[in-house]
Amino acid sequence: MLEIKNLHAKIADTETEIIRGLNLTVKAGEVAAIMGPNGSGKSTLSYILSGREDYEVTDGDILYNGESILELDPAERAAKGIFLAFQYPVEIPGVATMQFLKVAMNEQRKARGEDELTTPDFMRRVKDAAGKLQIDPAMLKRPLNVGFSGGEKKRAEILQMALLEPKLCVLDETDSGLDIDALKIVADGVNALRSPDRATIVITHYQRLLDYIVPDTVHVLYKGQVIKSGDKTLAHELEANGYADVIGAAA
Amino acid sequence: MNVHAPITLTVAEQALLNAFDAAAGELPGDAAVISARDRLLHAVRVEGLPTRRVEAWHYTDLRALLRSVPAADPAASAKVVAPLVEGAHVLSILDGKASTKGAPKGVSVASYGAALTAGTSAADLAERGADDAIGRLNGAFVKDGLAITVGSDADLSSPIEIQVAQSRGQSHVRLPVTVEEGVTATLIERHISTDDAPSLVTAVTDLTVGKGADVTYVIVQQQGETDSHLGQIRFTIGQEAKLTLFVINAGGKLVRQEIHGVVTGEGSNLTLRAVNLMGGETHTDVTFTMGHDVPNTTSTEIIRNVLFDRARGVFQGQIRVAPDAQKTDAKMACNTLLLSDDADLSAKPELEIFADDVQCGHGATVADIDPTQFYYLQARGIPAPKARALLIKAFVAEIVEELDDEPLVEALESVIEAWLDKHSI
Ligand SMILES: Nc1ncnc2c1ncn2[C@@H]1O[C@H](COP(=O)(O)OP(=O)(O)O)[C@@H](O)[C@H]1O
Ligand SMILES: [Mg+2]
Questions:
Q1: Ligand 1 site-directed mutation target among A18, A43, A84, A221, most atoms within 8 Å of CB
Q2: Distances (CA, A) of B218 to A162, B232, B315
Q3: How far is CA B35 from CA B31, B32, B208, B267, in A?
Q4: A250: part of which helix (H) or strand (E)?
Q5: Alpha-carbon distance B414 to B408, whole Å?
Q6: C-beta of A153 in contact with ligand 1 (< 6 A)
Q7: Is residue B315 part of a domain?
Q8: Which of B239, B265, B291 represents a domain boundary (last residue)?
Q9: In terms of domains, do B182 and B36 share one?
Q10: Together in a domain, B66 and B207
Q11: pLDDT tens-digit profile of A163-213?
Q12: Å from CA of B199 to ligand 2 middle
């Protein structure tokens, strides 16, 4: 489903290369964990997948279902099913969460040539999904992410993911700032979306989340490259021994 | 009499003098009114319209900006349109001619033209000062208007919309509005254009908010692309009373809306919110002066400007706190979304504080769309133009939504959306 080949990327308008020859393949149905110390380029990779303009790909390619997505803007990528749950969800005063959800869902439907949702259909979907994530309906009337607690923001991201039904889900540090109960709710939300035609990339630097969202593959990202890949036991090794061994072996 | 070197009249000034000569016989008024008009016009004749050398007009050089003044046009044909808020009571002034019909129970409405004829209103025609060009022009030319009194027995389940509709030519209207003690009322003063021909409208509103009253007064200016609009509202707020004044400018080629208020009663509160939507080659000025003259009063002012194209915007805001007006709490903010390199906004906030135990502040910001917010919306599948439009609307919707009146919020948001639909890029 996703093939990243020898990807090099820098911060636009500078010479600072952050992704330095990264290779990664994620198959449909797979849950891949990306781990790595702070500053290794995990968030940058997620932004590049979503098409953020602040980064420039200088070499290599990203294939999604066999096609390069490098020329697509963020909205086109989203409509094709790529979803990024942000490490730091963005506050948007003046845009009610409900209104935002409706516009996002309908714009994606339009881009795919589908009919817009009727209001009752939209309301029902939101109510169901919010209920599963134990989101208070009052929160959805508030401006998007404004005044939400850390945990509410993360839940709101997963709510969006559930409603938009993407094919490739990228979760950037969705566990940070969550207490254990919230973590379980969020993990249940993610697991509910697991399906043979959907791939998930879970970015985290703690093993904790992976106890609830059990990955098929684990990849260690360091200085903009995948330096080691393995199965879920790799996550336990990293938890026990830290990154030093892996980094030392790769150097 | 001051001695002035004779000025060379501009095309617009000459057109104003011609219009006065043409209308002189029809302008209503007793001897006192007639002499007030002559005096006001004389000032225009010898001083001309204000230029940037007049401090209050520094950013809006009226003499240079008012290029022409359309003569009164017999083909004027304005008609009433549907009110902004469904079910509102519509009082209309069509091409300058007021109708006293349509008032709800408990609201008295009288013709201002009749008051001029009867000679009961000469005092209103006085200027606020030598720099009061709007008061001067309006006083010289005013022909009609509506004197509205909202009494304590008024049935105000729906707002009152004062619809000032202009098709072409020029009109000069007055709106003395009094809301009596303890009354809660919403009034909408709406200026619309019903055809594409240029027009000049001057409007002076005198609003008196009685003791303990709670008034929402909304000025919605939706004139046409070739129109000039010179508006002025003067208000006083009585003891323990509350005024929410909401101004939306969403039209006009040359616009100045002045807001001059005095809080005269202790414990009173002003909430001023203004949304100025500007595009094309237009000039829009909101000038606000506020006097906190008694102790224990509060005011907050938030101005939100959106500029596209080559638009020029001006906000001047002056808050004065009198020496014995202790415990005044006043906060003013002017925030601008500048969406074009060719657009420009001048903001001049001023505090003049003569009391020591007060809390007053002001701030001004100018920014473009926030790139992170823009990216976030796109990452959810919202295409760039739509994401941009959402963020622009959000910037102004934030203050509209503060109004605790859902039909009114929806009506104002639809005015904003309609304007943005025409101007989005
Ligand atoms: N827009 C940016 N401007 C400057 N430095 C950046 C920018 N984006 C990322 N970086 C730098 O790139 C490196 C990788 O950052 P990031 O992708 O956030 O790492 P991680 O998510 O793995 O902690 C860090 O050193 C970070 O400071
Ligand atoms: Mg990160």
A1: A18
A2: 42, 13, 18
A3: 6, 5, 26, 40
A4: helix A244-250
A5: 10
A6: no
A7: no
A8: B265
A9: yes
A10: yes
A11: 999 999 999 999 888 888 888 988 998 999 999 999 999 999 888 889 999
A12: 58
Each residue's pLDDT tens digit, B145-157? 999 999 998 878 8
pLDDT of residue B178: 97
ipTM over 0.85: yes
Please tell me if the CB atom of residue A93 comes closer than 6 angstroms to any atom of ligand 1. no
Q: Which residues of A touch B373 (CB under 8 A)?
A: 90-92
Checking if the pLDDT of B159 tops 80, the result is: yes
- Name B313's bridge partners: B284, B345
Residue A54: CB within 6 Å of ligand 1? yes
Mutate to test the pocket of ligand 1, among A19, A43, A45 (most ligand atoms within 8 A of CB): A43
Q: Taking the CA atoms of A56, A57, A63 and A68 in sequence, report the sign of the dihedral they define.
A: positive
Chain B contact for A113 (CB, 8 A cutoff)? no
Q: Which range marks the domain in which residue B392 is found? A: 370-425
Residue A233: Cβ within 10 Å count: 9
Determine which of B378, B390, B396, B400 to mutate to test the interface with A (most A C-beta atoms within 10 Å): B378
Average pLDDT over residues B204-217: 97
Q: How far is the CA of A172 from the centre of ligand 2 (A)?
A: 7
Give me the residues paired with residue B254 across strands. Answer: B228, B283
Given B247, B265, B283, which residue is the final one in a domain?
A: B265
B109 and B253 co-located in one domain? yes
Number of folded domains in chain B? Answer: 2
**Pocket flag, ligand 1, residue A205 (CB < 6 Å):** no
How crowded is residue B252: how many other Cβ atoms within 10 Å of its Cβ? 27
The SS3 of residue B105 is: coil
Q: Which two tokens stand for residue A134?
A: 């134990």
| A159: its two tokens | 């709510």
Identity of the residue numbered A240? A
**CB-based contact B386 A111, cutoff 8 Å:** no
Instruction: Let me know whether B392 and B243 are in one domain.
Output: no
Cα gap B381→A110, rounded to integer Å: 10
Note whether residue B128 is domain-resident: yes
Q: How far apart are CA A8 and CA A21, in angstroms?
A: 5
Q: How far apart are CA B268 and CA B254, in angstroms?
A: 33
Compute the distance between CA of residue B94 and CA of residue B264 in angstroms, rounded to an integer: 34
Q: Which residue has the higher pLDDT, B423 or B70?
A: B70
pLDDT (tens digit per residue) in B125-134: 989 999 999 9
pLDDT in tens, B270-315: 999 999 999 999 999 999 999 999 999 999 999 999 999 999 999 9
- Indicate if B23 and B154 belong to the same structural domain: yes
Q: Would residue B297 count as lying in a domain?
A: no
The verdict on B388 and B261 lying in the same domain is no
| pLDDT score of A242 more than 90 | no
Distance in angstroms (rounded) separating the CA atoms of residues B204 and B137: 10
Q: Calculate the CA B70 to chain-centre distance.
A: 21
Residues of chain A in contact with residue B371, where contact means CB-CB under 8 angstroms, are 54
pTM of the model: 0.89
Domain co-membership, B59 together with B181: yes
Which DSSP symbol is given to B57? G
Could you give the CA distance from residue A130 to residue B226 in angstroms, rounded to a whole number? Answer: 50
Mind telling me how many Å the CA of B377 is from chain A's nearest CA? Answer: 8
Provide the pLDDT for residue B329. 96
The Cα B362–Cα B376 span in angstroms is: 31
Nearest CA to ligand 1 atom 18: A43
**Does any domain span residue B172?**
yes
Q: Check B398 against A94: CB less than 8 A apart.
A: yes
Eight-class DSSP state of B66? -
Is B240 found in the same domain as B106?
yes
SS3 A166: coil
